[in-house]
Specification:
Elements lengths: L3 E3 L2 E5 L3 H16 L15 E7 L4 E11 L14 E2 L10 E9 L6 H17 L4 E9 L7 H10 L9 E2 L4 E2 L1 H4 L7 H7 L2 H8 L3 E2 L3 E4 L4 E9 L5 H11 L1
Helix pairs in contact: 2-7, 3-5
């Protein structure tokens, strides 16, 4: 993954405490809306941090962190397990990795940033024989108003298989599958309000929990998101590997 370069962007692993702090500063700006401060927690010390940098400006433009698990028996160690009851995933036999705190610098919209971030993730998955990628995909704010079509779309097309379905654990949730049971989504509005990271998961065959967690600390609604690597459509997998190669 080190030195993966596409155009003006390069993805690399954080190699120092200063690198990790740079990621924490970007996360603070992206998730907490402040110019100064660090978004930090105990998971930072046990994760690999990936940075996407603009080689022209010298700026950090995106970051995320990775927590590898040997298989589903370690799922309780994940960040997501704080918010979702994930005992169904304990039966998953392959290697897993949790991708968390994914963010792009506020105000940046260059699609190549997301492409490079996913290229780095693809290389990591292939090099480490990962069989499932998972994490929390966030909608801005803690109210569902305005996101009903997006949640109805998830309910209709992208719920987790029953064998892996996360159950409710957090004290405050929006149970969109039950609440929007009869609603049919407006697909245009749904696509407009789906977070870019979640859209990428979904086009690769990803699935989500049947409820969203209300996270007042980060001012988000988030859904558990899983992607079984073997289920990625072959054409999409070839495209990802071509970008990562």
């Amino acid at each position: 993954m080190l030195g993966l370069r596409r155009g003006r962007y390069v993805a690399r692993e954080a190699s120092s405490s200063a690198d990790v702090q740079a990621c924490q500063r970007l996360r603070f700006a992206a998730f907490r809306g402040g110019a100064e401060g660090l978004d930090a927690d105990d998971f930072d010390a046990i994760c690999t941090h990936v940075m996407v940098e603009d080689t022209r400006a010298g700026d950090l433009v995106a970051c995320y962190r990775l927590l590898p698990l040997s298989d589903g028996s370690e799922i309780a160690r994940s960040y997501s397990a704080q918010f979702y009851e994930l005992s169904a995933l304990e039966a998953f036999a392959g290697k897993m990795v949790e991708m968390g705190r994914f963010c792009i610098a506020p105000g940046l919209t260059d699609a190549d940033i997301l492409r490079v971030a996913w290229a780095a993730m693809t290389r990591y998955v292939d090099e480490n024989a990962v069989e499932m990628l998972f994490g929390c995909s966030s909608f801005q704010g803690t109210e569902a108003d305005g996101y009903e079509d997006a949640f109805a779309f998830l309910k209709d097309r992208h719920l987790a298989p029953n064998r892996w379905l996360p159950r409710v654990k957090a004290p405050f949730v929006f149970p969109f599958s039950a609440r929007l049971g009869l609603r049919k989504p407006d697909l245009k509005r749904a696509m407009q309000t789906l977070p870019p990271l979640l859209r990428t998961y979904l086009v690769m065959g990803g699935w989500v929990s049947d409820h969203a967690v209300v996270d007042r600390d980060l001012n988000t609604l988030h859904v558990f998101t899983g992607l079984e690597i073997g289920a990625i459509p072959p054409a999409r997998a070839r495209l990802l590997r071509a970008t990562a190669g």
